[in-house]
Each structure stands twice: as C-alpha cells, then as structure tokens.
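Let's practice the habit of predicting before peeking. Look at the sequence and jot down your guess about where helices and strands might fall. Then scroll down.
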Amino acid sequence: MMNPIVKIPSVGGRIAVKTLAKAVKLGLKHQLDCVCFSARQEILFELPHAVEAKQFTLALNQMHIAVGTADTRNVVTSLPANDIFPKRPWLHSGNYTEIVQSFKHKPRLTVAIVDPRQDFVPIMDSELNFIAAEKEDFWYLYLCLGDAGKPPFIWPDLIDSKSIADVSARIEAQVALGKTELELVELLADDSDLQTAPYGFIPAPIQQNHPQYDGFFRVGGVYWLGIYNAGQRMPLLKLEHLLSVCQSQNINYIDLSTWGSLLIKDLKRTAVDEWNRYLGLNNLNIGPAYHELNWKLDPFNLEHHALKVKINEELQKAGLRTWGLSLGVASETRRIRPSILIRVHPKKLLGRQRYDLYHAKHFNPVNGEYVLFDGHMVQQDLISNLKGLISQYQRQMRIKVEPIQALRRSEKSKTIIYECSVCLTQYVPNLGDPEHGIAAGTAFGNLPLTYCCPVCEGDKSVFVLV
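Done guessing? Here is the structure:
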C-alpha cells in the first residue's frame, strides 16, 4: 500500500522561494529524505503513515501554505516557459496567475492553460486544455474527456480569460452528471455570464518539439538553469542548499516544469559560477542524454522507474535516437499522452508481468489517437518491439500530420474548406473570418486580394481547396 502524499500546489508552475524553504525545513524536521516534483507542477512529500501526514498538513496550514487534496488537481500552465520560449505577443506571466487565482473551486478534472507557441509544457495532457488564441485574452478549448485514445473535441467558441474558471467549473459539474461534449456545448451556449467570441477558421494542428530542459541556457542577456534529478526526486538537503543560494541572489521564485524538474530564471552571467559550484557540491549532473528526460511517469511507482532504467540501458546499447519522442509508462487507470505508451497489465500472468505497446497516430500525441503496436508481451519482447517502433518513427519523421477537425453545432457533411499550404490553417466560407472582417458565408473567391492567413500571414494564393 502506498504511503500518504502531501501536495503543495504551485500557482501555475511558480512557487515562492520563502514558501518552499519553510516546507523543506518542516520536511527535515519530520526526518524526510527527499521531495518529488509532479507532472502537475506540485511539490510532493511522502509521509510514512497517515497520522504523520495529518500533522504535516496541519503544520503547513499554520504557516499559511496551501495544501492540495487527494481528489483535486492543480491547474497546470505554461508560465515557466514565459520569457524563455516563443509566445503569443499578448501573453505575460500576469495572465496566467490571474486566471489560476480566479478559480474558486478546486478542480477534480485536470485543467491546463497553455501557450501553443512554446514547447516546454505539453499541449494536450489535461482533460480541459485552454490554448491561447491569436485574439488577445481569448483561448481555444480542447476537451480530452474519457478514453485517452479519443481525439480532442474543439469547443466551437473562444473563451475569454475571465470566464475560464467558470467554464471549467460548469463543465466539471455536467461531466459528473454524464453529459457528452455536444450536450456541454448546448448547455453553456446561452449562458450570458460567460464571455466568448466566434472564430472563423479551424486552428492548424498543433505540433510540439520536446525541449532540452536540463542545464544552463542563455536567453537575451540572462541565463536560466533547469535541474532534473533522476526519478523526479530531490534530496531535501540539496533542495535546502538550492533555496539558500536563491535567497543569497535575491531570487524570489522558482518555476516547476511538468517533467519533474525545476527552473531558476533571470540569472546574470556573474551568478552562473556560483550555480556551477552548487551543482558540483551536490553532485548534480546537468545535460543528461535525451532519453533520460523525455519520460512521463508516476514519481512514486518504483516498478515503472525500474522499467525506464532498463529500457534506457537497452536503447543506449543499441544507439537508438529518441529525439522528438516522449515515452510513458502507465497502469490501466492512469491517463497520459506520450508519443509512445507502455501500458502495464494490472495482474501478472504465470508470475510474469505483461505489457501493451501503443503509439500515437503519426507519433503526435496531440491528436489523441493511439494505435496498438503489440500486446500481452513479457519485458524482453516489449524492449525488442520498442526498438522496432522507435526505428519506425525515425523512418516516418516527415509524415504529414492530419489536422484535428473542429466539431460545430451547425457542421454540414460536405463543407467547402480551403487550407493554407504553409501552416495548414483552414478557411471555411460558411464560417468566414469575423475576427478579420470577413463575414460568414463569404466565398473564397470573394475574399479581398489583400486577405492573408491569420496564423502565418501567407497571402491568399497559398490556400488550396481540400
């Protein structure tokens, strides 16, 4: 049976150094060894038994440190990527914190608030995925409810920043009653309290590269440092030392990734030497092989981590490159969206663990569709088939990814669609492009010669009929 876990949620991936220092000091007082960083940007403390977990939680509350509950989910955002990855011009750190702080309920569904131009935080890892639109303060909403292999459902309207918390709460309440995506749209369609806006083109399919998030990186005139520790765990003494270095350099916040790592940002060149000394004193290596960093795992499942170690050893021996892929290990009940998914059977057969091996369609987890590569395998066969699957990916890297189609209430079976040949954004005459002054029902031939793609700004001539 798993030990009780105490969760300290960050605010959109950011936590105050002073707050974390208090929690670490308390952990050392309770003689805890290490802390974990979750995929939902939380700090996790594993306590030996329930009584001590209650005492630990009470002590945190007395220090005015928020504590999550077992059945609630922290709201994930791409705030940590701000200022170090490309972004929407209108989107700043304050946008994320304001939205997260507007949540009056504690979500039981997973929610993500993400900039599509960054590669640091996965786009479709939550059940409610708010993706920043071109229009300032508005967001696309992708629903990934139910089966992990089901394609995302695109909400037919843009959602205003101020309505995200309310929309999330109302969707969650209706999902609990068993409502489908289309029923959700109908139920919320006439709600005058929610601020929405139409959009006149189907968003291009989202694709993400997988970032190298561990090490020193220079952005402009400053540096940021990403620190990943094996197993997504960090000894408390090392974390205590890290926080003391932050305080000595007047660094007030650190950011948490969804990959089990932390970020220290806005470092001046003169500070890099001190951070190198910290890494050396604590025997923290940076810049590990990519196949060490691109995994999605439960930080407390030691069997899954042991499988990861074994697989990485075999990949290294074979010299297989995994750049561009994410890999995940999951139980039957855990929902994750990596490029390649290893599903562990809940029960062993004749004393041996069995596995199923899936890959996302075109190896793009954003599409949400998974294909079974092989099933009911023992570990040796799993690793052999995984090598073959990775080799297949390398051969198919240039395959064009199919766009995710938006589902609309007024959708017709034979809709005329023109597609930008540069970025795959689509113009639908029935919908027009009201955001850019093009009324619904405007035929493509009647568009002004000055019309251009609203995403890549390609001119009208780059659109083709599909």
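How did you do? The mean pLDDT is 87.
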